[in-house]
Every structure is written in C-alpha cells, then in structure tokens.
Design goal:
The chain is α/β, with parallel strands linked by helices. About 55% of the residues lie in helices and about 10% in strands. The protein has one domain: Rossmann fold, CATH 3.40.50.300. It has 8 helices and 5 strands. Helix 1 packs across helix 8 (about 190-210). Pfam families: Thymidylate_kin.
C-alpha cells in the first residue's frame, strides 16, 4: 500500500498557521504533488458541526472535559474519513492543527493534564502520527495582537484570559521538547515569507530523501 506524507501545523492564536498551510499546499501543487488540505476541529461534515459548538461564543458554559471529548470526537471522524484515505492513496496531507492542539489547549490551557488528553485521543487518532509537525512559536502578546487586528468576529477561544494562552504556549514548548524528532520549531515572529521558506526547505528535504532509492552495495 502506497503511503503519503502527513504534515501538521501547530501554534497559539495568531501564530500564522493558516497562511502557512496555504503557502505550503501551493508549493506542493506547483511541484505536482497530490495534496489534501484540512483542519481541526473540522475537515468533515460532523467535524464542522462540532467546531460550531466549540467555537460559539455563547457556549461559555461548555466545560473543559466536554470540550476535550468534543475535540477528540471531531478528530476520530477526521482521521477515519479524511486522513487515512488520503494517506493510503499516496497524497500529502497538510493539516491546520491536530492532536497536539488538544494536548496544549485542553491538557495545559484547561489544566486537564497532557497525559490524560493524550490517552483520551489515542483511540481517536488510531495510530495516525504525523511525519512532520511545524510549531510556529510566537509570544502570547504578539499572537493576541495579530488576532485582534485580523478578526472581525470573536469566537469562544478569543474570550479566554491571557493566563490561559500562556499555559497553551508553554504546553507547546514542552511538546516540542518531548517530541524533538517530530517537531520543527519555527520562529513565527519572522515575516510570512521567511517562515514559508523555512517550512519549504524542511518539507523539500524530506521529499527529496523519500524519493531517493535505498541502494545497497553488491558483494
């Protein structure tokens, strides 16, 4: 079975993930690769319905535990309907957020515990581990400033206190250390072009390496 490449982007609010997903997908398309671009929570009909619940600013009574289960439920649907089929067809999957967002936001931000959220999501991801995780590292203050400038309508996550986002950011930094072989930390305060170039260099290197045949010497 041919297997594709699974790439995800992570970071706090205002990190610039969405634009980097678009730029990378555009580069890949230009190089002739078949790409699936998706996001979490969402990506599927059911996932988008769950996103409406989790992001609705009127749902201030949504408890942290309920939020964690909803995110995992959306992810389970996403993995089954989008990620696995795309990878099995040899496509490159570029995803805006994945399980590490849940660990950072619910595990650290909501203080439910990173290990608990990881275990909660084990069934949801069903072994679908990314090949590359780009963590766009941006200070909380910078991210919030960008967010305020960019958005017109606030969602539920925009209503959190600064301490919440500080815990999320620390969660990502801990994840980057724990999964150093998987995470690529990029300074998200750089220009969009500079970040995109760094991302493309890493992805191109991975693709070039995968394209080389495994030649062994003959005796």
């Amino acid at each position: 079975m041919k297997k594709g490449l699974f790439i995800t982007f992570e970071g706090g609010e205002g990190a610039g993930k969405s634009i980097q997903v678009e730029i990378l997908a555009s580069h890949l398309h230009e190089q002739g690769y078949d790409v699936t671009v998706t996001r979490e929570p969402g990506g599927t009909r059911i996932g988008e319905q769950i996103r409406t619940i989790t992001h609705d600013p009127e749902n201030v009574d949504l408890t942290p535990v309920t939020e964690a289960y909803l995110m995992a439920a959306a992810r389970a649907q996403h993995v089954e309907q989008i990620i696995f089929p795309s990878l099995e067809n040899g496509k490159i999957v570029v995803c805006d957020r994945y399980v590490y967002s849940s660990i950072a936001y619910q595990g650290y931000g909501r203080q439910l515990g990173g290990e608990k959220i990881q275990k909660l999501n084990d069934l949801a991801i069903n072994g679908a581990i990314p090949d590359l995780v780009f963590f766009l590292d941006v200070p909380v203050e910078t991210g919030q400033k960008r967010r305020r400038t960019a958005i017109k309508v606030k969602d539920r996550l925009d209503l959190q206190q600064k301490e919440f986002y500080a815990r999320v950011h620390e969660g990502y930094r801990q994840l980057a250390k724990k999964y150093a072989d998987l995470f690529v930390v990029v300074d998200g305060t750089q220009s969009i072009e500079s970040v995109a170039l760094k991302v493309w260099d890493v992805v191109k290197s991975r693709l070039d390496k995968a394209a080389k045949p495994d030649v062994q010497g003959e005796y």
